Amino acid sequence: MKIGITCYPTFGGSGVVATELGLALARGGDDVHFISYAMPSRLSVLHERVRFHEVTVTPYPLFDPYPPYTLALATKMAEVAEYEKLDILHVHYAIPHAISAHLAREIVSARNNLPFITTLHGTDITLVGRDPSYLPITRFGIEVSNGVTAVSQWLRDETAKNFATKKEIEVIPNFVDPARFRKHAGALSGLFASSGEKLLCHVSNFRPVKRIMDVLAVFERVSRTIPSRMVMIGDGPDRSVAEAFCRDHHLREQVFFLGNVPNLEEVVGAADVFLLPSEAESFGMAALEAMASEVPVIGSRAGGLPEVVVEGETGYLLPVGDVEGMAARAIEILSAPDLQRRLGHNGRTLAEGTFNVNGVVPRYREFYERVIG
Ligand code: GMT
């Protein structure tokens, strides 16, 4: 099959899922064409069946300050669809990708049939897509898609409710490669924590929805009882304020801000507990990668996170903002090696089963076949 994939290329979860999906499809024998304004950040693996097509927006004085990326993307999608003879387009994150795909399908319709699938990831539905300035166009993008998927049951229900749409939405959860994300005990933990100290970890794009200050509040409480250190992976708007907090609260020696590290799996796999206290989370890809690495997760009972983290089995979920409760659970886990092991083992089992890349990717492929008809 020849598949065009469009996503945001930056470090957001939807780009990660799109890239890993494309690579897995290529390994299975499909030809995959990524179409975006930059190379997706996780597309570091070269594969003979993977191509990247960069969308460039030609500048023109009248376009300032709003160059029409949506149109340039639609043009590139149509161009790639024609000369690479694409069977299907798969766009990740509804805005504006579904609209560009709709336009591309129209452009080529006289010569080609170009169905497209839209995968809903989260903030495209729960935040920006609900803004009155985008709601009608997001609903339109969903309704004109040939197929729609959502990464959790919760997100599917939110979409139906917020957009008052009867469009059928297939739930296909996010996935992880358990060969890549696995325990790396001792490997890197020594770099950040000395022996006898525990290592806590957080990964995100440091946006307000991630509640970075809650991560630090939990860590501060834990470190009063348990000798420990914290690694913060990723980057984004709230990083500066978080670093300033650590300087002001004498946490600089204990909290390491690593940025977007390429060897994410080694750092996550060396941790003892993973924190994800988000305000909202349609799935929680970072939590799944921690579970695959046998790291218990402490997070908020929000959105689709309970579909990933099984309460009391792979970690603990508490109300949003309950930093006391989260710290208490972290201390409980870090003081009981058997509990830490059991939660980690259960997380790994789920990652190897329900959320295994080898089981989930074929579900996307079957969906493509169904949509192509
Ligand atoms: O908000 C983000 O973290 C980025 C966003 C995205 O679409 O790039 O992530 C969403 O999609 C991820 C992949 O499906 C999910 O794992 C995240 O839970 C989801 N984020 C939110 O819902 C806040």
Features:
373 residues, alpha/beta, Rossmann fold, binds ligand GMT
What overall form do the CA principal axes indicate?
A: globular
Total of helices = 14
Proportion of residues in helical segments: 40-55%
User: Roughly how many Å is the radius of gyration?
Assistant: 21 Å
What's the CATH class of the largest domain, please? Alpha Beta
* Main sheet specs: 7 strands, parallel
Which ligands appear in the coordinates?
A: ligand GMT
Short description:
The chain has helices at residues 13-27, 69-84, 97-108, 123-126, 135-144, 153-163, 189-192, 212-225, 239-248, 264-268, 285-292, 323-334, 337-352, 357-372; strands at residues 2-6, 31-36, 50-54, 88-92, 116-120, 147-150, 170-171, 198-203, 228-233, 255-259, 273-276, 297-300, 315-318.
Describe this structure as you would to a colleague.
The protein has 373 residues and is of the alpha/beta class. It has two domains: 2-175 and 356-372, 3-Layer(aba) Sandwich (Rossmann fold), CATH 3.40.50.2000; 187-353, Rossmann fold, CATH 3.40.50.2000. It has helices at residues 13-27, 69-84, 97-108, 123-126, 135-144, 153-163, 189-192, 212-225, 239-248, 264-268, 285-292, 323-334, 337-352, 357-372; strands at residues 2-6, 31-36, 50-54, 88-92, 116-120, 147-150, 170-171, 198-203, 228-233, 255-259, 273-276, 297-300, 315-318. It has a seven-stranded parallel beta sheet, with helices on both faces. Strands 10-9-8-11-12-13 form a six-stranded parallel beta sheet, sandwiched between helices. 50% of the residues are buried. The site of ligand GMT has 18 residues, from helix 1.
